[in-house]
TrEMBL record:
Domain of life: Bacteria
Keyword terms: Dioxygenase, Oxidoreductase
GO molecular function: 2-oxoglutarate-dependent dioxygenase activity; iron ion binding
Entry-linked InterPro entries: Phytyl_CoA_dOase-like
Pfam families: PhyH
Listed name of the protein: Ectoine hydroxylase-related dioxygenase, phytanoyl-CoA dioxygenase (PhyH) family
This protein's record includes keyword Oxidoreductase: yes
Keyword Coiled coil: no
PANTHER family named in the record: PHYTANOYL-COA DIOXYGENASE DOMAIN CONTAINING 1, PHYTANOYL-COA HYDROXYLASE
Species of origin: Sphingomonas jatrophae
Length: 252
């Protein structure tokens, strides 16, 4: 099933991203928002602020593999609006790489330095896409996503520091295009797109879910970033699947 129009697919290929407005209704977004905040409250304090922007003053609440915490996210992963969008870009077969939720708390929500996702989990064919689901409004002052349109065409770029960000003089955060979003919007982008986001200076949280997907025929070039549920098929089939073996046979 294909969901994007030819014009949308063309825009994605040209710009490296696509902003899908109102993919979910305000009611759906509010329900997902409540699930994210319930996980955040249940797990206690966390902080995923990146090393290169850590100054002790900001915080980033996060949790990975959220479909293992709430069935709402398992349903989201299989929602035809999600799988259809992914199939339009990747092809008929869509495999889960990982999920993670982020809450940028009010007035102190950490920025993300500009980066490509590629250095974290490089793949041979660069089939990886990220989807950021917005569960509340993300205007500029709430630290919305910022991108360098077309930067995916540059291919893998040199990454700097422990958190693999891009050189700040070449890709300053302030020079990137802000993509303010509304609750229910989704932004899909290539893992080669230069992206980041600003500080949340507002008095409301910014609440998102990030899902990374790939073509199962692609090959990951390192063994970092293993996640629970990685390899689950969300659409189509895995043409590379090998004959089934019991775990105890494989170990023998
Ligand atoms: O949520 C954001 O603003 C960006 C997240 C991101 O780029 C990442 O986790 O790699």
């Amino acid at each position: 099933m294909t969901m994007l129009t030819p014009d949308q697919i063309h825009a994605y290929r040209r710009d490296g991203y696509l902003h899908l407005r109102g993919l979910f209704s305000p009611e759906e977004a509010a329900a997902y928002r409540a699930e994210v905040h319930a996980i955040a409250e249940g797990q206690g304090p966390t902080d995923a602020t990146w090393e290169s922007v850590k100054d002790g003053a900001t915080r980033l609440i996060h949790c990975h593999d959220v479909q293992f915490r709430s069935a709402a996210f398992t349903r989201l992963l299989l929602d035809p609006r999600v799988t259809g969008t992914a199939q339009s870009i990747i092809g008929p077969n869509v495999q889960l790489h990982h999920t993670k939720m982020f809450v940028k708390p009010p007035e102190q929500g950490s920025p993300f330095p500009m980066h490509q996702d590629h250095p974290y989990f490089p793949h041979r064919d660069h089939s990886l896409i990220a989807m950021i689901f917005h569960f509340d409004d993300a205007p500029e002052e709430r630290g919305c996503l910022r991108v360098y349109p077309g930067s995916h065409a540059l291919g893998p770029l040199p990454a700097v520091g422990a958190d693999h960000h891009l050189a700040k003089d070449r890709f300053p955060l302030a020079g990137a295009t802000p993509l303010p979003a509304k609750a229910g919007d989704m932004i899909v982008f290539s893992y080669l797109l230069a992206h980041g986001s600003g500080l949340n200076r507002s008095d409301e949280a910014r609440t998102t879910l990030l899902v990374q997907l790939r073509d199962p025929a692609d090959v990951q070039l390192n063994d970092r970033h293993a996640s629970r549920g990685q390899g689950m098929m969300l659409a189509g089939v895995d043409p590379t699947a090998t004959p089934f073996r019991f775990a105890w046979d494989a170990a023998a």
